[in-house]
Specification:
Chain A: The chain crosses the membrane at residues 102-127, 148-168, 188-209, 246-272, 292-318. The complex is a heterodimer. Chain A is mainly α. Chain A contains 13 helices and no strands. In chain A, 77% of the residues lie in helices and 0% in strands. In chain B, helix 2 runs parallel beside helix 5 (128-139) and helix 6 (141-155) packs antiparallel against helix 9. The chains are: A mainly alpha, B mainly alpha. At the A-B interface, helix 1, helix 6, helix 7, helix 8 and helix 10 of A face helix 3, helix 4, helix 9 and helix 11 of B.
Chain lengths: 326, 272
C-alpha cells in the first residue's frame, strides 16, 4: 500500500504545482489582458463576478501576494473559476462541467482502445521478430509522425467532404436534444467515429513500438528459456511469461505519456468542433478568454492525475514486487 | 549504419538545406497576393494558391526555416537542461536525486499543451525564439528521466570508482567519465526533443496563439483552416505542409531507431 500512498502524495504535489503555476502566470507575465477585458465589458459584470476575477487574476494590487494566494485557494475550493468571456455570462465551472463528459468519453475510450490494440500488436511483433509484422513499424512510425490535427483534417476531407460517410463536426446531430434515447446515442456514436479513429491511428504506433522492443528484450531472458524447456504451450509462454513482464514499462509509460495524448486529443476536438474541452479551449484562445483557458488547464490536469492513479493500481495488480514492498 | 538511418539522415539534410536556401529559391513572395485565387497545383504554382492568391509552394519553402530553427534551438536548450538535471540527480543520489526526480516527474505529468497555450497567449509578442524557449522549458523532463536512470547504472562502475579513488573532482568525473558513456542516450533524447518541439510549434501556430507574421508550416495550416479550405475542397492548401511535417517527423524517428539499435544490439535485425 505504501506504493499507492507514495504515488498519491506525488499527484497531490503535482496538482499543487499546477494550481500554483496557474496562480503565478497572470501575475508574472507582462500585460493585463483581464483588466482590459473587464473594462471592455464595463457595467455588464455584477460585483460578485468582478470580485472573483480580481481574486483569480491578482488585479487587487493593494493585497500582498500571500493574501492573494490564500484568496485564490479559497475561490478554487468554492469551485469558483470566474466568468467566461466567450460564453458570457456563464461561469467557467458550468462551461467545463458541460464539456468534460464529452472529452472523458472520447479520450478515455480511444486511449484504452489504442493501448490494448498497440500492446497486443507489439506482443506479436516482438514474439515473431523478423516476420512481416516488422514491416508494419515504418508505416506506423509515419502515421505517428503526423500531427493529430492534420490527420483529422485529412479524415474530414476524405470521409465527409469527398465521400460523405460521417459527419465532419459536432458531437450529435443539430436539432437533437441530449437525452437518453436510441436516436441520440446513435447520433453521438456516429459523430465520434472520425475523431475516435483519428486519435487511435495516431497514438497506436507508440504502444506497438515500445511493446515490441520490450518483448524482444524479455524473450531473451532465462525464465522464458526455462518455460520453453518445460514444454509449455507457445501461447502460455508468450502471454503469461514474456508479455506480462514486458508490459510493465508500457504501463508506467502510459501514465507519463497521457499528458501528451490528451494534448493531441484536444486538437482533434478542435478540428472536429467536438463539444469537449479542446473545442472550448480553442474558442477561448480566439477570445483571449483567460479564465476559461486556465479552467480548462486545471480540469485536464486533474483528469490526467486521476487516470495516472488508475494506471498505478493496474501496475500494482500486475507486478507483485510492488505489493510486497513496505 | 543501415538503410533506415541513412534515409532518415538524407531527408533531414534535405530539409536543413531548404531551411537555408528556401527564401532564395522560392518563386514568389509568400505573403504577396495574386490574381489566381484558390487554383489547384499547376506549372506556375506547383502547390496551388490560397484564397488570396498567395503561392503555397513559396510558403512551404520559406516556412521551413522557422520549423527547423525552433527544432534546433529547443533540441539544444532542452537537452542541456535534461543533462543538467538528469545526470546530476543520477550521480549525486540521495535527497538531491529525490528533489530533482520529483521536479522532472511533475513536468512530465502536467499536460504541456494547454499550459503552453496559456503562456503563449499571455505573452505580448510570441515570436519564434521566445516560443522555442517556452517549449524547451516543458520538453526537457523526459530526457532527464532517461539520463538519470542511465547515470545511476554507471555510478558504481569500476572506472568511475577508480576515478573517484584517484581524487578526481566530481564535475570532472561527470564530464569526462560519465557523459561520454551517455552519448547514445543523449543523442536519442536530442532527436526526440526536436520531434516534440517541431510538433508543438506547428500545433501552436495552427491554433493561432503564435505570431502569424512569420511563415512556418503551422501558419499555412492555420490560414487553410480559418478559410475553410476543407469545405471548398482545396486539398492542396493543407496537404503539402502536413506531408512535410510527417516526412520530417519520420526522418527523425528513423534516426532515433538507428541510435537505439546502435546502443542496444538486441534490437538489430536478425540475419537469416
Amino acid at each position: 500500500m505504501t506504493f499507492l500512498l507514495r504515488r498519491a502524495l506525488f499527484y497531490l504535489v503535482t496538482l499543487w504545482a499546477a494550481i500554483t503555476a496557474n496562480f503565478l502566470l497572470p501575475r508574472l507575465l507582462p500585460g493585463d489582458p483581464v483588466q482590459a477585458m473587464i473594462t471592455k465589458l464595463g457595467g455588464r459584470l455584477n460585483s460578485d463576478a468582478m470580485a472573483s476575477l480580481y481574486i483569480l487574476f491578482g488585479l487587487d494590487a493593494k493585497k500582498s501576494i500571500w493574501e492573494q494566494y490564500v484568496d485564490y485557494w479559497g475561490a478554487l475550493l468554492r469551485g469558483d473559476l470566474g466568468l467566461s468571456f466567450t460564453f458570457f455570462p456563464t461561469p467557467v465551472a458550468d462551461v467545463l462541467s458541460q464539456s468534460l463528459p464529452w472529452t472523458l468519453g472520447l479520450v478515455g475510450v480511444t486511449t484504452v482502445i489504442a493501448f490494448l490494440l498497440g500492446t497486443l500488436m507489439g506482443v506479436y511483433a516482438g514474439w515473431k521478430r523478423g516476420s512481416w509484422m516488422d514491416s508494419l513499424i515504418p508505416v506506423t512510425t509515419f502515421l505517428s509522425s503526423i500531427p493529430y490535427f492534420w490527420l483529422g483534417l485529412i479524415a474530414i476531407s476524405v470521409f465527409s467532404v469527398t465521400w460523405p460517410l460521417f459527419p465532419a463536426s459536432g458531437g450529435y446531430a443539430a436539432g437533437l436534444v441530449p437525452e437518453f434515447s436510441g436516436e441520440f446515442i446513435g447520433s453521438v456514436l456516429e459523430h465520434a467515429v472520425l475523431p475516435g479513429i483519428t486519435i487511435v491511428v495516431s497514438s497506436v504506433a507508440g504502444w506497438i513500438l515500445g511493446m515490441r522492443n520490450m518483448m524482444v528484450t524479455v524473450t531473451a531472458e532465462d525464465y522464458v528459456l526455462v518455460a520453453r524447456a518445460k514444454g509449455l504451450s507457445q501461447r502460455r509462454i508468450m502471454f503469461a511469461y514474456a508479455a506480462r513482464n514486458a508490459v510493465l514499462p508500457s504501463i508506467s509509460g502510459f501514465a507519463l505519456s497521457l499528458g501528451f495524448i490528451v494534448g493531441g486529443a484536444l486538437l482533434v476536438e478542435m478540428v472536429f468542433s467536438y463539444p469537449g474541452l479542446g473545442y472550448v479551449l480553442f474558442q477561448g484562445i480566439g477570445a483571449k478568454d483567460y479564465p476559461l483557458m486556465q479552467g480548462v488547464f486545471l480540469v485536464i490536469t486533474l483528469a490526467v492525475l486521476v487516470a495516472n492513479l488508475l494506471a498505478d493500481v493496474g501496475y500494482l495488480l500486475l507486478d507483485p514486487r510492488t505489493r510486497r514492498e513496505g | 549504419m543501415n538503410f533506415k538511418t541513412k534515409l532518415g539522415l538524407g531527408i533531414l539534410a534535405f530539409f536543413a538545406l531548404i531551411a537555408v536556401i528556401g527564401e532564395w529559391i522560392a518563386p514568389y513572395d509568400p505573403s504577396e497576393m495574386g490574381d489566381e485565387i484558390l487554383s489547384p497545383p499547376s506549372g506556375a504554382h506547383w502547390f496551388g494558391t490560397t484564397m488570396t492568391g498567395q503561392d503555397i509552394f513559396s510558403q512551404v519553402l520559406v516556412g521551413t526555416r522557422g520549423v527547423m530553427v525552433v527544432g534546433l534551438v529547443c533540441g539544444v536548450l532542452a537537452t542541456f537542461l535534461s543533462i543538467l538535471v538528469g545526470v546530476t540527480a543520477g550521480f549525486l543520489g540521495g535527497a538531491a536525486d529525490e528533489a530533482l526526480s520529483m521536479l522532472s516527474n511533475v513536468f512530465l505529468v502536467i499536460p504541456a499543451l494547454p499550459l503552453i497555450i496559456i503562456v503563449a497567449s499571455m505573452l505580448p509578442s510570441a515570436d519564434t525564439v521566445l516560443i522555442a524557449a517556452v517549449i524547451s522549458l516543458t520538453a526537457w523532463a523526459w530526457g532527464a528521466r532517461v539520463l538519470r536512470a542511465q547515470t545511476m547504472s554507471l555510478r558504481r562502475r569500476d572506472f568511475v570508482e577508480a576515478a573517484r579513488a584517484s581524487g578526481e573532482r566530481t564535475w570532472r568525473i561527470i564530464v569526462f567519465e560519465v557523459l561520454p558513456n551517455l552519448m547514445a542516450v543523449i543523442a536519442s533524447g536530442f532527436v526526440g526533443t526536436v520531434i516534440f518541439a517541431v510538433m508543438l510549434q506547428i500545433t501552436l501556430s495552427f491554433v493561432g496563439v503564435v505570431s502569424l507574421s512569420t511563415w512556418n508550416w503551422g501558419t499555412i495550416l492555420f490560414w487553410a483552416q480559418s478559410n475553410q479550405a476543407l469545405g471548398q475542397g482545396a486539398w492542396w492548401w493543407f496537404v503539402p505542409a502536413g506531408l512535410c511535417i510527417a516526412l520530417l517527423g519520420t526522418a527523425l524517428a528513423l534516426i532515433n531507431f538507428g541510435i537505439d539499435e546502435y546502443a542496444n544490439p538486441r534490437l538489430r535485425k536478425v540475419r537469416a
